[in-house]
Amino acid sequence: MTSQPEFILLTGFLGSGKTSLLRDWLALPEAADTALIVNEAGEINVDGAILAEAGGVPMAMLANGCVCCSLTSDLVFTIRALLEERERSGQPPFRRIVLESSGLSRPGPILRSLAPLAPLGLRVRVVATCDAAQAAERAAHFDEAVAQLAAAGMVVFTKLDLSGTADAEALVAAINPLATRVLEADRAERARRVFLGGAEDPAAMLDVEDAAGNAAHPRVAVLRLSFAENATWEDRLDLMEDLAAFCGERLLRVKGFIRRPGTEVPLLIQAVGTLFSPPVPMPGAKAVPEGLVVIARDLSAAELRAGLGGAPVHVGTFRDNPLACTPG
User: Fold this and answer.
1) Long-range CB contact pairs, 277-282, < 8 A, 24+
2) Which H helix or E strand runs over 296?
3) Is pLDDT of 52 > 60?
4) What is the residue range of 321's domain?
5) What does the pLDDT look like over 233-273, one tens digit per residue?
6) 3 state DSSP class of 117
7) Residue at 172 is within a domain
8) With the CA atoms of 293, 203, 111 and 27 taken in that order, what torsion angle do they form, in degrees rounded to the nearest 10?
9) For residue 98, what pLDDT band results from cuts at 50, 70 and 90?
10) 39 and 78 fall within a common domain
11) Does 102 share its domain with 25?
């Protein structure tokens, strides 16, 4: 295959509008080069039946189980089958494969399950829908909702006609200030922005809005890690292993840049949960300072610093200047 599609994990809590967003997309002509995988936690394939009427794109079902815990091998098999069947048909490759996960799925285990597909070179993106009217209540009572928002590179606010968005925006900024936020009342245009969205601007990846205090979600901490002058390349690599080992399930998201000492081009570092993607060179981000943004649950800067032991790294929180690290 000469070209591989983008893999979009569409996540979001129960009733947050994932299926409606997909229906809006499938009604557009631009959706013709899309394949769809739908995960339902029950035996009755409700979402699949709804989406089947919305468009004629290839669709596969993962039913009667949650893709993040019991259907991971089925997901890998399904993606391979879709790609192989498309190639056999002689049609151009898919531009994207969209997985609509169940409303109780956590993104981390789903992304880890894609490891056997690494040789295919799929470009992976996580999109989360957020019900503007119920976001705070969901996040207060369901860890799954927090994990979904924290993992997303893009958060799409839904049901804008039912509620103002100020509280929901504050919540998302506290849980995941790294995410691109989509507030678009026109449903067709919103779908285009989500599924035709281009790559992020690397120079803006660490331009994090002020998350001081995280008042909108006190259990979630947004921390910044910067390296001491004497930190070696091995220290930088060890840090990522130590982060995963110490934080475990408390680690929600990591994003930022590291540099091999003596080089100018930074490497983009990303993780959802404890799953780190391979570092990617980013020549366009030479001016961006080195450092990692860590989003974690039930973890303070002091606890993380202690857990990392004597690692040559500074741990701080964000204050008025989001790129200034305040030791804490």
Assistant:
1) 277/124, 282/202, 282/257
2) strand 291-297
3) no
4) 212-327
5) 999 999 999 999 999 888 888 888 999 988 989 998 988 88
6) helix
7) yes
8) 130
9) very high
10) yes
11) yes
Say yes or no to pLDDT of 37 above 60: yes
Question: What's the domain count of the chain?
Answer: 2
Q: Is residue 203 part of a domain?
A: no
Strand-strand pairing, 180-182 and 6-12:
unpaired
Q: Which two tokens stand for residue 53?
A: 């009427």
The verdict on 189 and 218 lying in the same domain is no
The CA distances from residue 5 to 47, 77, 78, 115, 282, in Å, are 23, 16, 14, 16, 21
How far CA 106 is from CA of 77, 152, 196, 279, 280, in Å, comes to 20, 11, 24, 23, 25
Q: Which of 163, 166, 170 is nearest to 149 (CA)?
A: 170
What's the whole-model pTM score?
A: 0.78
Alpha-carbon span 94 to 58, nearest angstrom:
10
**Arithmetic mean of pLDDT, 307-316:** 89
CB-based contact 163:153 (threshold 8 Å): no
Burial class (CB in 10 A: 0-12, 13-18, 19+), 170: middle
Helix (H) or strand (E) holding 131: strand 123-131
> Which ranges constitute the DSSP H helices of 208-328?
233-247, 301-307
Contact 48/126 with Cβ under 8 angstroms? no
Residue 204 resides in a domain:
no
Q: Which amino acid is at 188?
A: A
Is there a single domain that holds both residue 187 and residue 290? no
DSSP E strand stretches across 176-284: 180-182, 220-227, 251-258, 267-272, 275-276, 280-281
